[in-house]
């Protein structure tokens, strides 16, 4: 493994040119600002630190000495995309495990699990992700899968498979035994153990905080596994034109992986880190956010607080019962009092707070908590709500009151549309996925993917935000009606707004003199493409700090 890693990294670093003053010319340049305004340019000069020196119009000459020239071949150049909600290490580790995304039936998933187990007989656990019972069959499986069904294909080793939303897991009997989950196991706060019909025995799926019971029994990834996972995650993101991410839920193990990569010169992605807990926030940051490290590639600046779950697992907190499960209003992971206490602890040392809130009740709780605490913690806080997937229209105004960031994931939102409608009913969709409504309230939109639960594909996310379906050019119905935003606003949400949302403005996010030259080269202009054409645009190259980190083979 170590020799494999060394060879892998040597190849990756050999492709990165030495920094020098460089002229990138013959381009259709675009720089997007927070207000959606666009500057056009024909060439760009980058200094030996990787920062933009000047933007040039057609026919203008550089005012500084240039060492190298790159011919842009008339292609579009724009700021690198910033994914505002990623679980970076999970994205990388997912590349090293069983992938069940795209399975079309329970039998399809079981066949893939059996094949994977056969290919890896030496692994003590079979670990994977990406199953979605709602996608199994034309109307879904109609239930959660069971441990017995897993036992039929892998009876002799523990199996643990995380659902596509990351908020539930499917275990076989060996895994349940390893986790000591029995008929007598009490459900933790914010968690649920699905029981067998007519009894108390665990059926095989656990939701919310109950997943931690199984995860505690899992063999932890080795340091070299994490290092390879980070490398793979960077390569995947660069291939989609992503040059920076907000990493939600950073653990101390994640942070040390990032530091090892930075120390070795292998950290090329920019990471705005949000700690997984107060303890980890204080362990990493101490008395406040860290400084920017590795030429502005890494900073721990905030804390993620998970208030509820997701609609797919019926964990999103709702104001009324789930339409397809009366009596259930979701799974609060922490109480309102705990939320406020944790927010206060973070704000006390000027850490930024990011609150995961999917359902309308969770969003109301998060908005009210911010409203209550804003008076005690003044200044530039940039409170964040992650997902904001369903917001009561009556609560929309609170987004603007404190300049709250709504960190949303359009591509995942449109793919989740049928699930949300099935969970709450068509009559309650007025506040679902309200990109335009939230932006219209005066809040700041920052877009992302929620990878690995969805593909980190910004161009497809922009197409989705234009009010279109996830895979076609047909107008999305139901909850998408009236929520289309402009191309300029969508591009800003993936670039300048996303940087501002993580206190990174002035460092990266726009192509202006003084900021780092993080950019993508595209084969078409996203400002003039149809939504369907947007999904077909290719990322030809990706550059970070004036260095090429990805290029497709010509």
Question: Would you summarize the structure shown here?
Answer:
This protein has 554 residues and is an alpha/beta fold. The protein is 30% helix and 23% strand. It is built from 18 helices and 22 strands.
Taken as a percent bin, the fraction of beta residues is 15-25%
The CATH C-level class name of the domain at 89-215? Alpha Beta
What average pLDDT do the residues reach? 92
CATH architecture of the domain at 89-215: Roll
The CATH topology of the domain at 89-215 is Diaminopimelate Epimerase, Chain A, domain 1
Could you say which structural class the secondary elements and strand pairing correspond to? alpha/beta
Total count of helical runs of at least 4 residues: 18
Helix content: 25-40%
**Rg (C-alpha, Å):** 23 Å
Q: Globular, elongated, flat, extended or rod-shaped: what is the shape? A: globular
Catalogue the unreliable spans: 1-18, 469-479
| C-alpha end-to-end distance | 31 Å
The number of strands is 22
Largest sheet: 8 strands, mixed
Walk me through what this model shows:
There is one protein chain. The chain is an alpha/beta fold and 554 residues long. It has a domain at 89-215: Diaminopimelate Epimerase, Chain A, domain 1 (Roll). Helices cover 30% and strands 23% of the residues. The chain has helices at residues 2-14, 88-94, 106-119, 147-151, 173-178, 211-215, 223-239, 252-263, 278-285, 336-348, 360-373, 397-401, 410-424, 435-440, 458-465, 487-493, 496-501, 531-534, and strands spanning 22-32, 38-46, 52-56, 68-71, 76-79, 81-86, 98-99, 126-131, 159-163, 168-171, 191-195, 202-208, 242-250, 270-275, 298-306, 352-357, 384-387, 405-408, 444-447, 519-522, 539-544, 547-551. The strands form 3 sheets. Strands 1, 2, 3, 4, 5, 20, 21 and 22 form an 8-stranded mixed β-sheet that branches. Strands 6-13-14-15-16-17-18-19 form an 8-stranded parallel β-sheet. Strand 8 (126-131), helix 4 (147-151) and strand 9 (159-163) form a beta-alpha-beta unit. The longest helix is centred in the middle third of the chain and has 17 residues, at 223-239. The chain starts with a helix and ends with a strand.
């Amino acid at each position: 493994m170590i020799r494999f890693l060394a060879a892998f990294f040597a190849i990756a670093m050999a492709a990165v040119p030495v920094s020098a003053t460089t002229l990138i010319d013959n381009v259709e340049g675009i720089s997007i600002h927070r207000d959606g305004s666009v500057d056009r340019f024909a060439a760009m000069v980058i200094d030996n630190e990787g920062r933009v020196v000047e933007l040039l119009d057609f026919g203008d000459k550089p005012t500084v000495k240039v060492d190298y020239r790159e011919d842009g071949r008339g292609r579009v150049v724009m700021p690198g995309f910033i994914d505002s909600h990623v679980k970076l290490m999970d994205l990388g580790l997912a590349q090293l495990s069983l992938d069940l995304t795209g399975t079309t039936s329970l039998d399809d998933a079981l066949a893939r699990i059996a094949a994977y187990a056969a290919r890896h007989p030496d692994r003590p656990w079979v670990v994977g992700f990406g199953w979605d019972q709602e996608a199994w069959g034309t109307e879904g499986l109609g239930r959660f899968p069971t441990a017995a069904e897993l036992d039929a294909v892998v009876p002799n080793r523990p199996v643990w498979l995380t659902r596509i939303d990351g908020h539930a897991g499917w275990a076989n009997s060996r895994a349940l035994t390893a986790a000591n989950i029995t008929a007598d196991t009490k459900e933790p706060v914010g968690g649920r153990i699905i029981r067998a019909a007519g009894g108390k025995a665990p059926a095989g799926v656990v939701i919310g905080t109950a997943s931690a019971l199984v995860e505690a029994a899992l063999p932890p990834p080795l340091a070299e596994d994490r290092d390879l996972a980070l490398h793979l995650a960077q390569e995947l993101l660069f291939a989609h034109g992503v040059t920076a991410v907000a990493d939600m839920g950073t653990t101390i193990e994640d942070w040390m992986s990032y530091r090892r990569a930075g120390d070795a010169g292998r950290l090329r992605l920019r990471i705005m880190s949000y700690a997984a807990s107060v303890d980890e926030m204080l362990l990493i940051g101490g008395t406040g956010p860290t400084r920017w490290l590795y030429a502005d590639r890494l900073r721990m600046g905030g804390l993620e607080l998970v208030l509820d779950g997701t609609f797919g697992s019926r964990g999103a907190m709702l104001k009324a019962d789930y339409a397809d499960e009366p009596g259930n209003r979701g799974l609060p992971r922490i109480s309102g009092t705990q939320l406020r206490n944790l927010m206060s602890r973070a704000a006390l040392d000027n850490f930024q707070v990011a609150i995961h809130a999917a359902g309308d009740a969770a969003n109301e709780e998060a908005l009210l908590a911010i409203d209550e605490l804003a008076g005690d913690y003044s200044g530039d806080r940039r409170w964040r709500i992650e997902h904001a997937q369903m917001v009561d229209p009556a609560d929309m105004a609170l987004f603007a009151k404190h300049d709250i960031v709504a960190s949303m994931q359009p591509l995942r939102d449109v793919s989740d549309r049928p699930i949300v409608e099935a969970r709450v009913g068509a009559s309650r969709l007025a506040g679902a996925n309200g990109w335009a409504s939230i932006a219209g309230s005066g809040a700041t939109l920052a877009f992302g993917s929620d990878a690995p639960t969805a593909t980190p594909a910004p161009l497809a996310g922009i197409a989705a935000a234009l009010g279109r379906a996830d895979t076609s050019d047909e107008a999305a119905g139901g909850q998408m009606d009236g929520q289309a935003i402009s191309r300029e606003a969508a591009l800003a949400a993936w670039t300048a707004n996303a940087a501002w949302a993580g206190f990174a403005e002035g460092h990266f996010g726009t192509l202006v003199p003084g900021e780092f030259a993080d950019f993508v080269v595209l084969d078409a202009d996203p400002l003039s493409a149809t939504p369907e054409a947007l999904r077909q645009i290719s990322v030809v190259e990706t550059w970070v700090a004036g260095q090429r980190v990805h290029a497709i083979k010509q």
